[in-house]
Write a structure and sequence with these properties.
With 393 residues, this protein is of the alpha+beta class. It has a five-stranded mixed beta barrel. It has a two-stranded antiparallel ribbon with strand order 1-2.
């Protein structure tokens, strides 16, 4: 449960989108392959780590935007998702933390949204991830979004009572739906009460202001809301585009928020500005430290992978030295992305870059094994091609 988040489903096979090659799916794409259910269904997407989770959401975001002309349904903006009829939003004080069963008991003090008939008592026992359990404190007041429903496995269009009870919402922009009970947080969450509130110019100004605040959770919420609230995008003006660009270029904000806006800018340059996103992606690949930024590296791998996807999508040529450095990365997905782009510049160039990386004494055993296996496959492919060429004479 610690690696789950809910996303809205699509009735299309996302792996057909040109943002990535369905014949070369990595582990984090496996859930997307099965993403063919009804648009109204809430699916659960599993990833093995926060970095892969960010990667999978990035790919889904690109997929959704590529399919937008074909399908009107997309991931709901987080502030709209919170106010869905099947969800509840309360204020509660943490009464008990049960790590053995991954549950938190909140003593409800106020109901902000949701059907009151779904609340049968003041003590709300909510299933949450172990990460969340480590963050909360007994006696402290929080704003919590949760649901008591789950998709019926026999009929995905139907929602049924969750046999495990209430579970905390966890979706793009709400990772998780748990906030400190503060006036500024309430002001933001109140935007979700109405379509007018979510799409107004004043809402956009508030969300853009959040991007500049040193609160990663609210920065992420604001970024995802801007990306998916299409009525809000109509209000974006030139100064707003410059603010968004500056946010994505800044190394300090959460990589997940920067990644959402980077991919959105690639897909919608008329909304978010001209091709600044290409320069940002190139800079990320060329200058990001292989080990991440000290104290600020959480999720950086996912952002770098998004930058590679953007560059692949745009067919941009990246200097080979900028790509070759990533062959020494401990993240094999990044190394694979770099190899894919090097291959476009020539097999011999790819082979030479691999050999140079293998000569690095600081290379991890896992990365070394991956590169040697890749080099072996290149040799086999070359031998096969040479044999076919000889046979055709």
């Amino acid at each position: 449960m610690s690696d789950e988040f809910a996303v809205q489903g699509l009735g299309h096979d996302c792996t057909r989108a040109s943002l990535f090659d369905p014949n070369k799916l990595r582990p984090e794409y496996s859930a997307l392959v099965a993403f063919r259910s009804s648009p109204s269904v809430i699916q659960t997407l599993h990833c093995s780590s926060p970095a892969l989770r960010i990667r999978a959401v990035s790919l889904l975001l690109g997929c959704l935007m590529l399919l937008a002309p074909l399908h009107a349904e997309q991931i709901e903006p987080p502030l709209e998702f919170l106010y869905q009829p099947t969800n509840l939003l309360i204020v509660g004080t943490v009464k008990e933390i049960n790590a053995s069963f991954s549950r938190i008991v909140f003593q409800r003090t106020e109901t902000l949204a949701g059907n009151p008939k779904l609340i049968t008592q003041d003590d709300i026992d909510v299933l949450a991830s172990q990460d969340v359990l480590r963050q909360v404190r007994v006696g402290k007041s929080y704003i919590v979004g949760y649901t008591v429903f789950a998709s019926d496995p026999r009929n995905p269009e139907r929602m049924i009572a969750n046999r495990k009870g209430a579970r905390m919402l966890n979706a793009p922009g709400l990772e998780p739906a748990l906030f400190e009970d503060r006036p500024d947080v309430r002001k933001v969450l109140n935007l979700g009460k109405s379509e007018h509130g979510r799409e107004s110019r004043s809402s956009l100004k508030l969300l853009l202001g959040l991007l500049g605040k040193p609160d990663p959770q609210l920065q992420n919420l604001a970024a995802v809301q801007i990306v998916f609230e299409h009525g809000l995008q109509k209000k974006i003006r030139a100064p707003d585009r410059r603010a968004i660009e500056a946010f994505v270029r800044d190394a300090k904000p959460p990589p997940s928020a920067r990644g959402f806006l980077l991919v959105a800018a690639m897909q919608q340059p008329d909304v978010f500005g001209s091709e600044w996103w290409l320069d940002v992606a190139q800079n990320l690949v060329s200058t990001s430290p292989l080990g991440g930024y000290q104290n600020e590296s959480k999720g950086l791998d996912g952002l770098v992978l998004q930058a590679f996807d953007v560059l692949n999508f745009s067919s941009a040529r990246v200097p080979s030295e900028s790509l070759s450095r990533w062959l020494r990365s401990e993240n094999l997905n990044i190394a694979e992305s770099a190899l894919s782009m090097l291959r476009k510049q020539g097999l011999e160039q790819e082979r030479a870059a691999i050999q140079t990386a293998l000569d690095d004494l600081g290379l991890t055993p896992e990365t070394g094994a991956f590169l040697r296996d890749h080099l072996r496959r290149l040799d086999l492919a070359k031998a096969k091609a040479d044999a076919e060429k000889q046979g055709s004479k």
